């Protein structure tokens, strides 16, 4: 859009702001408003399909669909360029008034007549095998639609649609009753109807059709168009089903699906994973944020410039969440076999968990989420990231003691996390350095390594004394204090470590994280392993967002630990000091199709 901006700047410099007419002035702002409008639909639809009972197609979305649809804003930019060309080429476009009612009525009639009629037959032609295989199949690759699916077409299709939608605009320009707001509102109507029709949940209320029965010929519903994406040979209309009725191509199950979707069915997840935002920009990385951003690991930095441009919005969202975020919200819904799972997010960020005056408030949010899950009949609730911090709530033990009759099982997943750490350590390692605080995973890992006969070297601090008391006397000799003349091991088990401490590691050292947060990579001559995690089974559905900094289709071991609790039907809590044995958790993970990231 640089030519538009440069042209506008040149006119202002040469002849002042008075030379900029309304039509030209709205080209760029209207594009921005369209992008905001579309993003609102995307976020709202993803939020509703994660929590709503009015879902239409109960199937998942995968990464290939997100990748295919990530260029949804390209057509908005192209549309803006075409408007600019039209502004330069058509003299009457430069003299349009702000509003004309007769022009708006003419545009509505021209849309209902020629545009809808021509689109209907063009759409039917696209479903002929010759055109379908070459063009329209790209759009229909998305069986489960999202609002942005509506604009995912090959370039040639886009150009035909632009010609169709130009009929009302060019006609009113020719008749002399076009207006700037009339055209802007017409484009907004197209965006609104496109987005609404491709939502995978029913939102059009029944009373609208009861109040005005002919409306069913003039406005489609999400369930109406969803049938076109599942049945392919019915419901061809653009926004007005009239022509499907006229030419007998309306799907016979349209009314039934509408009623079924509107009525919906309550669904109780078997597992809830309770997480929270990390840094300020993580709000965009949520599934309900930017789809293309959420589909990549947050640490890649591939869109850093985009994130910095939106930095003020990140601050605003943090402030609003801090001020008005009174409960956890649903961000994701996934499925593995018969187990249905949801991810809930506490509206707080990493830095807030470190504020002493915020602890009571955060524990209140976690407690409300636990009680809500318990009341809904959820079997397992896994505490993710800092929601299980020992300094915050004793690793979840606070809630177990406060509510001894809880039916939902609280899980921190430390047993599987320990198992993953142990299997990340090279088999030939005879000595490791444990650079970590007194976490459950650190203690369990150290104890297991001593039992295995691996020398565990620790800094001489209180953690050493505490861990020493937990190890059998026959194996206590394998736990050593670190000294200046001590040989530095090649394998470092770390939870957090600063730059200077990393520089002390020998060349070729292997850093094995034992916490949920990754460490900063500053050494090119060392190997950095992933935070404890595993690849998920291929049968797990609706996975199209990365879990924080982890790669695609990879989950943290702590989160998987909760899934195993639900799949295995374990009836004990795994929080506080309680912990599932590492070997038991590992065997269950392998049995259910989870795959290790590394082979020691």
UniProtKB/TrEMBL annotation:
It catalyses: a long-chain fatty aldehyde + 2 NADPH + O2 + H(+) = a long-chain alkane + formate + 2 NADP(+) + H2O. This is aldehyde oxygenase (deformylating). It comes from Zea mays (Maize). Its EC number is 4.1.99.5. Signal peptide: none annotated. It comes from the Eukaryota. One of its GO terms (molecular function) is oxidoreductase activity. Pfam families: CER1-like_C (PF12076), FA_hydroxylase (PF04116). It is a multi-pass membrane protein. The chain crosses the membrane at residues 105-122, 159-188, 305-325. One of its GO terms (cellular component) is endoplasmic reticulum membrane. One of its GO terms (biological process) is lipid biosynthetic process. Keywords: Endoplasmic reticulum, Lyase, Membrane, NADP, Transmembrane, Transmembrane helix. Residues 432-596 form the Very-long-chain aldehyde decarbonylase CER1-like C-terminal domain. Residues 113-249 form the Fatty acid hydroxylase domain. It is an enzyme of class 4 (lyase). It is found in: Endoplasmic reticulum membrane. Belongs to the sterol desaturase family.
């Amino acid at each position: 859009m640089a030519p538009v901006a440069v042209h506008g700047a040149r006119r202002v410099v040469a002849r002042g702001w008075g030379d900029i007419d309304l039509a030209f002035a709205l080209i760029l702002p209207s594009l921005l408003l369209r992008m905001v409008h579309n993003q609102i639909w995307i976020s709202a639809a993803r939020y509703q399909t994660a929590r709503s009972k009015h879902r239409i197609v109960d199937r998942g979305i995968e990464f290939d669909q997100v990748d295919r649809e990530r260029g949804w804003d390209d057509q908005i930019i192209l549309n803006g360029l075409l408007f600019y060309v039209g502004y330069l080429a058509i003299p009457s476009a430069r003299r349009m008034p702000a509003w004309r009612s007769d022009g708006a009525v003419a545009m509505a009639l021209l849309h209902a007549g020629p545009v809808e009629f021509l689109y209907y037959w063009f759409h039917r032609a696209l479903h002929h095998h010759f055109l379908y295989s070459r063009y329209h199949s790209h759009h229909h690759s998305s069986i489960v639609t999202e609002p942005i699916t509506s604009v995912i077409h090959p370039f040639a299709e886009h150009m035909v649609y632009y010609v169709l939608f130009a009929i009302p605009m060019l006609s009113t320009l020719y008749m002399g009753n076009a207006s700037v707001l009339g055209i802007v509102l017409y484009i907004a109507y197209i965006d609104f109807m496109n987005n609404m029709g491709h939502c995978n949940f029913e939102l059009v209320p029944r009373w609208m059709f009861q109040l005005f029965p002919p409306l069913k010929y003039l406005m489609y519903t999400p369930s109406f168009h969803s049938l076109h994406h599942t049945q392919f040979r019915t419901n061809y209309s653009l926004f007005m089903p009239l022509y499907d009725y006229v030419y007998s191509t309306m799907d016979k199950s349209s009314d039934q699906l509408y009623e079924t979707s509107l009525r919906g069915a309550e669904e109780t997840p078997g597992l809830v994973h309770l997480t929270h935002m990390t840094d300020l920009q993580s709000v965009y990385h949520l599934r309900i944020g930017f789809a293309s951003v959420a589909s990549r690991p947050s640490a890649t930095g591939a869109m850093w410039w985009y994130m910095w441009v939106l930095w003020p919005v990140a601050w605003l969202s943090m402030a609003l969440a801090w001020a008005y975020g009174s409960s956890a919200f649903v961000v994701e819904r996934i499925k593995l076999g018969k187990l249905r799972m949801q991810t809930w997010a506490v509206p707080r960020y990493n830095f807030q968990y470190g504020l002493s005056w915020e602890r009571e408030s955060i524990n209140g949010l976690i407690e409300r989420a636990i009680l809500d899950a318990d009341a809904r009949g959820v079997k397992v609730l896994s505490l993710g990231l800092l929601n299980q911090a020992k300094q915050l709530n004793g690793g979840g033990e606070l809630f177990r003691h406060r509510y001894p009759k809880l039916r939902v099982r609280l899980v921190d997943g430390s047993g599987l996390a320990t198992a993953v750490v142990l299997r990340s350590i090279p088999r030939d390692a005879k000595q490791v350095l444990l650079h970590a605080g007194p976490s459950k995973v650190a203690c369990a890992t150290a104890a297991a390594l001593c039992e295995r006969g691996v020398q565990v070297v620790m800094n001489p601090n209180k953690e050493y004394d505490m861990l020493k008391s937990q190890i059998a006397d026959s194996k206590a000799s394998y736990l050593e204090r670190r000294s200046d003349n001590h040989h530095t091991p090649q394998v470092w088990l770390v939870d957090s470590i600063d730059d200077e401490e990393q520089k002390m590691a020998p060349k070729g050292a292997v850093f094995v994280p034992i916490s949920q947060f990754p460490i900063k990579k500053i050494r090119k001559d060392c190997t950095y392993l992933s935070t404890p995690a595993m690849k998920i089974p291929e049968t797990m559905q609706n996975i199209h967002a990365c879990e924080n900094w982890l790669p695609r289709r990879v989950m943290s071991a702590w989160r998987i630990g909760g899934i195993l609790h639900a799949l295995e039907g374990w009836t004990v809590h795994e929080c506080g000091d309680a912990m599932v044995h590492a070997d038991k958790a590992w065997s269950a993970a392998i049995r259910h199709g989870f795959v290790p990231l590394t082979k020691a």
